[in-house]
Amino acid sequence: MAIRWKHYIHAEVIITYGSFMQEMCDAFFALDVTQSEDRFVYGLIKPMFDMDDEYEREKLSDIVKLSFSFSDAENPRKMTKKETEQFWSLPVMKAFLARGGKYYFDEEQRDEVESSIKELLDCWQEEIC
């Protein structure tokens, strides 16, 4: 069962590809505080791509780096200082901060979490998502 953070969050992400032009995307989302870091990143990125479009699927598989920044979406209201502190103390957000908001997918640079994210992003190829 999902447990949602009480405020919507705004995410900006710079997506760097191996063979395509870099893009900047954004999303507004309700954070599931129970999600693992890999599922959280996957859940933010996958909706940015049309999985019915071959070109979009190719781009998804060509991601080499993600750079995130988050802000309070002021919805339903701006977070208080205490709420902001609570938000950044959530396990998934602590993990995000430890990486400086950057995820690398080059085989020589990625760790276990990044490998899991890459597998999730590429799972459309095997139709096992």
What does this protein look like?
The protein contains 5 helices and 4 strands, in the order ββααβααβα. With 129 residues, the protein is an alpha+beta fold. The protein has one domain. A hairpin with a 5-residue loop joins β1 (4-17) and β2 (23-32). α1 (37-45) runs parallel beside α5 (112-122).
Report the end-to-end length measured between terminal Cα atoms: 19 Å
Give me the Rg, rounded: 15 Å
One letter per element, helices H and strands E, the order comes to EEHHEHHEH
In round numbers, the mean pLDDT is 88
Number of domains: 1
By DSSP, the count of extended strands is 4
Low-confidence stretches: none
As a percent range, the share of strand residues is 25-35%
Helix/strand-derived category reads alpha+beta
**What share of residues is helical?**
25-40%
Strand order of the largest sheet: 2-1-3-4
Write a compact overview of the structure shown.
With 129 residues, the chain is an alpha+beta fold. It has helices spanning 37-45, 54-61, 81-88, 91-98, 112-122; strands spanning 4-17, 23-32, 63-72, 102-104. The protein has one domain.
